Lysozyme inhibitor LprI-like N-terminal domain-containing protein
Amino acid sequence: MRGGRNGFPSRRIRRNHAAVLLALLAAQPAANPAQAGSANPRRDCKRPGGAVQQAICAAPNLIAAESRIADLYAELRAALPAERRQSLQAEQRAWAVALDECGKAAEAGTGPCLAARMNLRLAELRRMKSQLAVETAVAGIPDDPKKSAETLRAFGGEPRAAAWLAYLARFEPASGVTAGEGDAARLRAVAEAGKGGGMLEGDTDPGKDAGLLLLLRLTMQNDQNERLLACPHLFLFKRHGALAYDAFGPIHGSSLDAGAPYCKPADGLFTQPAWRAVARAFEPARQPRSEAPGSIRFAYLARIATEELRMSLQPQDFAAGGPARLGKAIGTIRQWPDNKAWPRQDRERLIAALPAAERQTVQWLIDKRGFTPKAAKRTATGLVATYLEQWNGFVENPDGG
């Protein structure tokens, strides 16, 4: 593939390597990753300047590695959602700065330093590319299970892909994954389940529906810090209901529950301005408890997060007794006994933000869930009440909720 006008334009490098590389990364067209020139047109090796540039230009393997890094970076930047794309760019900038530091590594040699750092970055970008491929295949299961199966087979030796192949065998006949293939994949995933693997027995044996969902959760738990898409498994909660909420909720009663259910509420329910105001008003009371010693609070927070996800997907489940529950929850906030731990002004600000949150939730239910105005009003009241009930309980007793 040729470089030049369709990739990074050639130029003489008069600044230090890191500054040039950062500027070029920012100029990379995200929508056209295939045009990233594998011939590495970024570098003008006719007049190399500085130890880093001279070392790269003198070593074809370093030029090839840098070019491959640029290609992988461009592919990922084009494919990732906007919020993850920003962090990818920050990581690439940090790597470029670290690469430039190799010019000061005289004792170790600039070339070996560059090779080591390029190899590490290549490995990380390749891992991200594989991770993205698996997550994209998972997200595509409801629409094209056969295509998802084809992708997952390529990564079938990894626990996450193996667990999903087992899922396809059980729940998606159209995927083409046979029962035998699914059984073998399930055994591979169980063997690598790590912490929590001992839970996969009895009613939660992965040979049963509930156990298979739990196996999926454990593989996500193990790689939650590596995930690139926000919630590729969202369809599980819509499809399996209580089984999925139980599998992805608090199961450990410890810090292992952190991050569960690995999904934020759908369709921006709690990101609306009024809900943000409610969250800010709660923060002075819940932040000290969130940071307190002990690990059981992670289970409580996982339960809240799971319920908030369910509130966004099945809001009708929370409508019952809304007005009475809301009144009681507000009364609890007003009569809070510890004014030092939760100042009255913060509590009053919270209560003042509730009507706007309820109004915005009414509109959200109409727009996103097709509710009638009457049903939306009744349900919105129940959702606000549930939100307060959960966080009141956490603030009051984070370790025993």
Residues 266-396 form one domain. Confidence is low (pLDDT under 50) at residues 1-42. Residues 110-139 form the longest helix (30 residues).
